[in-house]
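Researcher: Here's the sequence for the chain we discussed earlier.
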Amino acid sequence: MFYKYNKKELKFEKCPKTLLIIFLIAVVSSFSSYVIGINRGAVCTPTPFEKELVVIDAEEQPFSQEELVEMLRDLNVKYPHIVLAQSILETGHYSSHVFKTNHNLFGMKEARRRVKTAKGTQLNHAYYDNWKESVYDYAFYQCRYMGKIDTETEYYQALDASYAEAGQYSLNLKRIIERENLRSLFE
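Model: Thanks. This is the structure I predict for it:
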């Protein structure tokens, strides 16, 4: 799946097939120019279009907690055991209507002031084409709002202050982490 970043709306948008064909032609011609340039000692720079294109692996895959753990590792999210506990809590162990309908693992609302992968709002929550887009959206959220946090205590405090609608959110997350031994999945 190919996405182009819309700077005005601060979000990624799917590339139309015609844009994808143009991109492939640009890549092939850039590569051939690069190969020719190497032989002549020239330096080739990427086209402006190539600099704005982002590829997100958004293949339709059934959800599994093992895949989620792997994705959290690959994205290098802060405190992945807490994030995994959030997914369990927010989805009722991956059985909630919002998760099944919206592919929303974290009970996220649609972002208004940051990069997002949400397609809109449905059931009063952000909705996505697949569960992986929900994980990318959480990673964007974390980068934007949790980037300067250095300790788990601060992370829990930030979640309680600005993320959670329910009381004792952090306490519930800590219980899930302990009960399901989530830390061990990331060691």
